[in-house]
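User: quick one
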Amino acid sequence: MDELRRSILKVIGVLGLSAGFPLLRTFASENVVPNEPVSTPSSKQLGLVLDIDKCLSSAVRDACISACRREHNLPEITANPERKYKWIWTEDFGNAFPDHAHEHFSETLKKQPVLVLCNHCSSPACTKVCPVSATWKRKEDGIVMMDMHRCIGCRYCMAACPYRARSFNWLYPRPDIKGADNPVYPTRTKGVVEKCTFCVERIRLGREPACVEASKKVPGGAGALTFGNLSDPDSEVSRILREKRTICRQLGFGTRPNVYYIV
Amino acid sequence: MNDKKMIILGLVIFLITVTYPFWYTLLAGAKVSRPVLEKPAGETRCIEEKAFMTANHMQLLNVWRDAVVRNDIAEYTSTAYGAKYEMSLTKTCLKCHNKREEFCNRCHGYVNVNPACWNCHNEQKGIN
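Assistant: Done. Structure below.
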């Protein structure tokens, strides 16, 4: 009996190994071949250029953040940082650009606030992990879009995004909405992930994102935020990127951000 | 085999419990009346014919949702009247149907459905 058992186990073992062998080759080749071509053919890619110096004015930053809050009915959470809603928010320079904040970087400059938001990456990590296609990259204009109806709240996208540009509705958000009442923009519900959408609802009407519009109304805010089509060489954003010294957040992740910073 | 009485009693109680919804509705049937809806004042028609809207408004809203969110198309052309509308629950539907309690909720309550639309979408009067 034991002899039979041994021989059966041997056969199973050999079969199992031979079945696994082709898989090993697949894994090995996937490590070598990149998932996507480096340049995706897109007729239009919307992007934003922020001037770090002009955004040092707290009036400009506050105008942008509160315009976004009013436009999208964002809840105001002060107590629990994990529950904060981050569509556009401020981050210390050292945290926003850890690659640039080297050992001898000035401590004061490291602490300077920078406006950050979803980078609407050309190769986004968040859209690839979504199991229900609730988030995807729009082919028409390159916006990383979110479908709140379809989101199941698994938060894979939040884990995937290296810029922490996504927020989760841990609780029903409406009781925390203060000082914002835009009835035509839906609030969200408990258990969905939300993020900056470059104000798709305004772009559809030919308007600029709320933050860009608000920054222009603040004294000294002109040129702080510039929005436009990066694929169009004649656009204002393309002109700035050609002429000025600009950086991106953590290029090393390979997500190819479309939000640029003038330094 | 001396439990015959208890078994029959148990069966009777079981049958009464199981058939309760049927005979209760029959007895109380006169009390339940079809919902009477308060229609928007000053409007003569909806975006499509009434029978179509009554039967298919939920499918229409699903089509609108996918068109706007996933395909960025926001204009709807009425098949019955040819008029153009913005595909928006708050801006288009609730502009006329501004009394949710007297219109939407009456039917939804009658047929016992709880659509989740208003968890996020606002009425025109505002949030909360």
